């Protein structure tokens, strides 16, 4: 039916089918009077060119792939929002796949997305240590620390976030400190910054491990408190885990921040809903998603591009305070 439409436009306009196609794809190559005649006939017939066909001619799909570990995680939702808004302003669409926090599923998702001939894409917090299948034209960007298979990235200076947390505790006079981390390079970098700042102040700290879930935060805090009751500050690698820490402290009758100060990481919407409201290291998730989309689009357009590193920010709320 689409072919019959273009034939009818060409016949009534007195031009060839190729000329009609050029009017909609390369208007500058057609005389203005011919262009006007074709457009008038197309409007009268209600004809609209196929976007799929136009993209095939251009060698573009107008699609950006997006692979995310878990679409329900609030931070990733903010990143997706930034990506989606940038694409919307460019008239492009997004093809999303979730790895469900699994390395094997991530590789499968990547292969499925690439089969749709996306022009480029974004991978958020890869689960795999193995290089992803070579993306088309390498127009892909990784949000998180550097991944060997993707040369361009958007990331947060996680070590700087750890330093911010340590400085805040030191400013408040806290001296019996702990860090609750999680697997992965991001948490390791946060801990590295935290430890370095404390070392310069001549202080050590205790450690516990979670997995970014609320339950693991509760269990990690219980583990720290079982081993020693001397604890006046806890830095937690993620806000959801920090919610679990607050619960553990409450169940033990420990006042926050009176007896124990708590700092989370990410500054997700959850942070301002907890009681007491959680002091957190802000990760500008929406801006990072938007920057990743812009970076991928620059690569698609054949322009030069550089990886982007964002700086964290300390957001003070009621979970920290003087001892």
TrEMBL record:
Using the record's annotation, list all stretches that form the HTH lacI-type domain: 4-58
Matching entries from Pfam families are given as: LacI, Peripla_BP_3
The record's keywords, sorted A to Z, are:
DNA-binding, Transcription, Transcription regulation
What GO molecular-function term can you cite, just one?
Answer: DNA-binding transcription factor activity
What the entry lists under SMART domains is as follows: HTH_LACI
* PANTHER family attached to this UniProt entry: HTH-TYPE TRANSCRIPTIONAL REGULATOR GALS, LACI-RELATED TRANSCRIPTIONAL REPRESSOR
Q: What name does the UniProt record give this protein?
A: Transcriptional regulator, LacI family
Q: Give the source species.
A: Deinococcus marmoris
């Amino acid at each position: 039916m689409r072919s019959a439409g273009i034939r009818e436009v060409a016949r009534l306009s007195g031009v060839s089918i190729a000329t009609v196609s050029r009017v909609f794809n390369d208007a500058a190559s057609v005389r203005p009077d011919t262009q006007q005649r074709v457009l008038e006939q197309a409007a009268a017939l209600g004809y609209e060119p196929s976007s799929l066909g136009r993209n095939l001619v251009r060698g573009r799909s107008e699609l950006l792939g997006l692979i995310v570990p878990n679409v329900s995680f609030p931070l990733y939702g903010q990143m997706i929002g930034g990506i989606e808004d940038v694409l919307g302003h460019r008239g492009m669409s997004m093809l999303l796949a979730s790895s469900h926090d699994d390395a094997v599923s991530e590789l499968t998702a990547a292969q499925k997305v690439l089969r749709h001939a996306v022009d480029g894409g974004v991978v958020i917090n890869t689960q795999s240590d193995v290089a992803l299948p070579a993306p088309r034209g390498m127009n892909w960007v990784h949000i998180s620390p550097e991944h060997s298979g993707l040369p361009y990235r958007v990331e947060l200076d996680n070590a700087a976030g750890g330093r911010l947390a340590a400085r805040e505790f030191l400013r408040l006079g806290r001296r019996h400190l702990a860090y609750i981390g999680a697997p992965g390079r991001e948490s390791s970098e946060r801990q590295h910054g935290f430890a370095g700042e404390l070392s310069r102040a001549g202080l050590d700290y205790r450690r516990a491990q979670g997995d970014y879930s609320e339950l693991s935060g509760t269990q990690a805090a219980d583990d720290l408190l079982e081993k020693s009751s001397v604890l006046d500050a806890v830095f937690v690698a993620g806000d959801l885990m920090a919610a679990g820490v607050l619960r553990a402290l409450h169940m033990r009758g420990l006042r926050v921040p009176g007896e124990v100060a708590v700092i989370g990481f990410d500054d997700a919407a959850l942070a301002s809903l907890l009681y007491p409201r959680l002091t957190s290291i802000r990760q500008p998730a929406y801006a990072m998603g938007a920057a990743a989309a812009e970076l991928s689009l620059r690569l698609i357009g054949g322009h030069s591009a550089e990886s982007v590193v964002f700086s964290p920010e300390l957001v003070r709320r009621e979970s920290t305070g003087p001892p």
